[in-house]
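Example 3.
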Amino acid sequence: MSVVFVAVLTFLSACGTESSSSSSSNKEITVRIGVQGKTGILPYAREHQYFEKAFEKEGVKVEWSEFASGPPHFEALSAGRLDFGATGGTPLIAGQAANIDFRAIAVTSDGKTGNSIIIPKNSSIKEITDLKGKKVAVAKGSSAYNFLYLALDRAKLTDKDIDIIQLQPDEARPALDNGSIDAWATWEPYATTAVFQTGATFLVSGKDLDITTPSFLIARTKFTEEHPDLTILFLKTYEEARQYFVNHIEEVSKDIAESQKLDVEIVQTVLNKTDTRLSPTTPEFSKAHQEQADFLYDVGGIDKKIETSEVIENKFVEDALKESK
Amino acid sequence: MENRGVIALEKINTGKKSTVRKTKETSHTGKLIKGIIFPVFLLVIWELAGLYGWVSDILLPRPSTIFVSFIDLLLTGNLLGHLEISLWRALGGFLIGGGLGLLLGLFVGFNKNMEQTLDPTLQMIRTIPHLAVIPLFILWFGFGETSKILLIAKGAFFPLYVNTFLGIRGVDSKLYAVAKVLKFSKWKQITLLILPAALPNILLGVRLSLGAAWLGLVAAELMGSSEGIGYLIMDARQFSQTSIVFVGIIIFAIFGKLSDSLVRYFERKLLKWQDNFQG
């Protein structure tokens, strides 16, 4: 009867979380921010307490949660346990297809160079078409998942031609190293780290495809409705951290290398090639994102046609950028 | 159990109708209905909760949504194919792990030397958690069936090992003394005394091993697989399709219960000679 037990527990917790988001007064509010990876703005800001300092003035606390990739952010969002996060575009598409309530409040990157497919050293694979029948690891629902499909499409292959193995970045790396998988579709800094550390090579890089797949800052809709001021503050603080980040890349690289125990060269290479911005979702980005949603639906990556403009909300970031000038 | 002896005696003595309460064995359908009342009640509450919006549809999809997902998976999602793979993996792991557990349990049970040599090591291995071992198994054995079946076997090994060992050592020494008086040969000792006495424990071990095999199956399919029910669950998680997660969980529950019922059926047949408290 453990099904019954699980069902009762889930029922109780589901009822509970509906009322856990607090009222509109600022007493004892906690902002919950999600981080993934080690070389982005949010991990850096966390290390230097940008958000803690900014929110302290409003009497608001900050709590951080770590995630292995984009999709788990949406699990937490739907359970009401996360307020803000930074993910690639594809998790938003998957999240919207699953009817999760969230808002895309800003674009953080044009996504052109963030993803790639790498192969181990001494691999017999020379071009994308060689992937046929091979084992390719990817975190499903992530931006790399979309990238994989785009690359396959370029080579006139489908997902039925390869063996997709679902793995998060920390699981896929050992698999690449010991030859259990033949290729790995992933994002930075994991790709560059593997290349530097094991002599892996880029089979397909962002430059090869040159497709815009924007990355976003996401927010829990109810939070933005109850605390528009805190949402704007979040974006302002992000911009503050970002400004410092892009204007001091060498210093920041050394900093990240030390605190995250990474090689300085790797970090600097990754930071130099990443497009790091904060902007509203312009019509251009909106169109690119919608194209990705349609593409994923056409190739069977997701099972529903969605209208991505429904989740886009630019007013917060527009206000934040105005106030940041 | 009916007290036929007492009732017969009573009839002879008093000619009156027996005043000893005969315990009526509940009919088969009666048992089924009793077992189903609670789950059905829960299902109804669950569906209503979803219908009236008391719970979020994403966190806890309604039974009707789950059913629709189930039919969809069945018709277009190759559910039967995934189920078949999962069942084969579970069976293979159970047979290998459980079989080894039974054998080792017998060796160690019959032989004190074996026990002192092997048991401490085995107890240490028993407490290593599945999830910690998965990455290692994948590293050593790759993503194919081997690592998965071995993981399931590891889980299925211990309940049978521990319970077989316990069953054999649990034989009442008074009975053992009687066997000695009757000058039982070693073979007769084993087949007529020790094994039958150990059978209840061994069968319990089988039930627990089956359960452990199911758990091992879920763990094995969570990482790096491309087919199976556990894979379906993991895949659905990445896309936040909670109703598919529930389909997977329910399938596991149903097959777990079915395999358990199968063993209990054999238990009833093999342990008919037992005379103990029926509740």
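The CA atoms of residues 126 and 203 of chain A lie 7 Å apart. DSSP finds 15 helices and ten strands in chain A.
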